[in-house]
Amino acid sequence: MDDDGRYRDGRSDFVRGAKDIAKVAKKQVGKKMGRGVDKMTDEYTKRSYNSNNDGYYRNDSRANDDEGHSDSTEGHDEDDEIYEGEYQGIPRADSGKASGTDGATDAQAQQFRDLSAYESERRKDQDELAEQYETILQECGHGKFQWTLYFVLGLALMADGVEIFVVGFVLPSAEKDMCLSEPNKGMLGLIVYLGMMVGAFVWGCLADRIGRRQTLLISLSINSVFAFFSSFVQGYVSFLFCRLASGVGIGGSIPIVFSYYSEFLAQEKRGEHLSWLCMFWMIGGIYASAMAWAIIPHYGWSFQMGSAYQFHSWRVFVLVCALPSVAAISALTMMPESPRFFLENGKHDEAWMILKQVHDTNMRAKGYPERVFSVRHTMRCFTCVTVAYCSCFQDTLTFSVSLSSSSYYGLTVWFPDMIKYLQKQDYASRTKFFAKEKVEHVTFNFTLENQVHRQGEYFNDKFMNLKMRSMVFEDSLFEECYFEDITSSNTFFKNCTFIATLFYNTDLFKYRLVNCKLFNSTFLHNKEGCLLSDVSDENNAYMVYFVSFLGTLAVLPGNIVSALLMDKIGRLRMLAGSSVISCISCFFLSFGNSESAMIALLCLFGGISIASWNALDVLTVELYPSDKRTTAFGFLNALCKLAAVLGISIFTSFVGITKAVPILFASGALAVGSFLALKLPETRGQVLK
């Protein structure tokens, strides 16, 4: 019965303050309100509720000479006053209906205790409270405060975009330092998604309990700390753990940022400005790509402390990628908590202070510093009214998010892998073959690349100060040869014989020599490098940095279009339309048989599909009530990351085998997702529940 008691107290306060809401709200913000709000205030005027000093709005009637009453007397006319119990369905004692028996009164009261009627009343009150909060936001206006918060939360969203790209950019360099095998590299790529999956659920739930701002500060702090540590740790396991913890921290940014920002936005601004906020994810990707291109190739930016500790340029890049998160923390400390969260938890005075701050900041920026915030200091009519919301759309939204995530992330990872596969095919097609050659007394001091030598004989030859890239020597003889200062990648000697040969300061040892025979040969000062399979550093940098840069930049048109049209055509049309067009664009992948074609298709798909993601973010914010908003958003975002892991695993397994399965899977998932999207309720024009 505690909930019942709190509910009745809230209803009682609501009764006492409702008349002031109607009269003053209509004067202060009537011109800014829509027809729905006007209808609500007119309804309140008809009810003519009793009021006192705990009312919702401050009474300004003393300043109006045509009003014949003051705060202390307003609303106490006998003809205008109603009994509080009458609002609850209990007749007053002196009414004609009240002259009946006590049994009739008890029967009427019992009828209102019926569960369905009781829930209906609670839902009605919740809608009225939501309308009131919308009225307050209308009075506060949209201006400097919301734009400041936009950039602050944008930094947090930017940090999420950076986190997605960090591991992919550092892998080509980090694998050299850590000697990573292919399974280890794959795990390092997936660990970020797993961390973000856990973080989204944990921080989403926590934000509904301790507040949006505080939870976001904690999650970003964890991300910053472990991102910092990951740039210094040396071992693979410790680096893996730091990136996992960093992902857990940043996992809270998306569910909290959108919920937090939406609770400062009025209805007519919400869809557009939440879509503008999505652009910071793209900015994060561009920032990561640009920094990787500018920093990682500078191998001279490094230092060593003996052979045990190395700090190369890719570690500098990891440090730089933590800056958006650090900047977001610094800026967020100056921003207030969501007033909607305070109101839901009964902290009315704190909520009033924040709303007044929003109002005053916007009015000063617009040149109206004298405009007074008309909401009273104690907003007693607001109370936490928890209603069991309809869950009929939850499964639909869950399936839609899962399908979209698996197809989007799967294709996003599949594109670069396919480009890399096409690069390797093109590279292999240009391989030069040499058979049964005899080379004597020759010095090789230039790069040897993309060659296959079979059954060759090399006598008294010198290989000095050079790089060997994709070199293969098969069934060859090396006699009295000299190898000095050799660095190799994807280079092997298979079934070769070495006689009286010296290897000095080279990485041609153990795994480079496959089934080889050595007679009187010596290895001095070996460079224990790692087994690398990259085609070339130049190709790898081009694929990883430039292609990722183009892919993230390509979503800019989609972001702009979705922001401009979100409130005009609605969330469902945006979601379904974008999904359908993305589905159609998947079929063009069959024609992507070259590197340039795959890059163009990557840009096309990214630019189209971003609109559906923006629509999903707005829908998720508006479908769930305030006390469950970040929890629901966090759960869906966690599901999104899980679907991403599954999609990536499925899609990458078909690289170099067939295009048909990934294309059909992605197209089918997008088609089903667009169909399910049509089953969701349209939230355009609705106030936040």
TrEMBL record:
Skewed-composition ranges (Basic and acidic residues): 35-46, 57-75
Chief localisation class: membrane
GO BP of this protein: chemical synaptic transmission; neurotransmitter transport
Transmembrane segments: 147-174, 186-204, 216-233, 240-261, 273-296, 316-335, 542-565, 597-619, 631-654, 660-680
Keyword Glycoprotein found: yes
Residue numbers spanned by region Disordered: 25-80
Keywords from the named record: Cytoplasmic vesicle, Glycoprotein, Membrane, Neurotransmitter transport, Phosphoprotein, Synapse, Transmembrane, Transmembrane helix, Transport
Organism annotation: Cyclopterus lumpus (Lumpsucker)
Span of domain Major facilitator superfamily (MFS) profile: 149-684
Basic residues composition-biased segments: 25-34
Gene giving rise to this polypeptide: sv2a
Localization, UniProt: Cytoplasmic vesicle, Secretory vesicle, Synaptic vesicle membrane
Gene3D superfamilies with a match to the protein in the record: E3 ubiquitin-protein ligase SopA, MFS general substrate transporter like domains
Family indicated by similarity: Belongs to the major facilitator superfamily.
Record-level GO cellular component terms: neuron projection; synaptic vesicle membrane
GO molecular function: transmembrane transporter activity
Full protein name: Synaptic vesicle glycoprotein 2A
Topology of the protein relative to the lipid bilayer: Multi-pass membrane protein
Record-linked InterPro entries: LD_SV2 (IPR055415), MFS (IPR011701), MFS_dom (IPR020846), MFS_sugar_transport-like (IPR005828), MFS_trans_sf (IPR036259), SV2 (IPR022308)
Keyword hit for Transmembrane: yes
Signal peptide range in chain numbering: none
